[in-house]
Write a structure and sequence with these properties.
Shape: globular
Number of strands: 0
Largest sheet: none
Distance between the termini: 20 Å
Strand content: under 5%
Structural class: little secondary structure
Number of helices: 0
Helix content: under 10%
């Protein structure tokens, strides 16, 4: 799904740290960290969640990111430029890549 790659000269392979996770475990890190993993050989989906904080006067280009949803962390959204995601009422999970949360199973 994600096809970004980093050239070998961008980091020192001697400083690479492996973090082996078991099913159900998570890794939290800054998106500036060079990270990745090999292909998922299981029949279960590997899901990722990205959270970014920005002021409410920033508008997402929905022609590029049509499933974007915003969630107000605090305060009031005076600009209302982005679609607001529904607050989950039950446990749900994606069943295909880049799926809007309202479509979770």
């Amino acid at each position: 799904m994600l096809s970004q790659q980093v050239v070998d000269s961008a980091f020192d392979r001697d400083k690479v740290v492996s973090l082996n996770l078991q099913a159900g475990e998570i890794s939290l890190h800054n998106d500036a960290l060079i990270h990745g993993s090999p292909a998922n050989p299981s029949d279960r989906m590997r899901a990722g969640l990205t959270m970014r904080y920005s002021p409410t006067d920033v508008e997402c280009d929905l022609s590029i990111w049509p499933t974007f949803e915003s969630y107000l962390a605090r305060g009031v959204d005076e600009f209302q430029l982005n679609p607001v995601g529904k607050i989950p009422q039950a446990y749900g999970f994606p069943i295909r890549p880049l799926q809007a949360s309202a479509e979770f199973a």
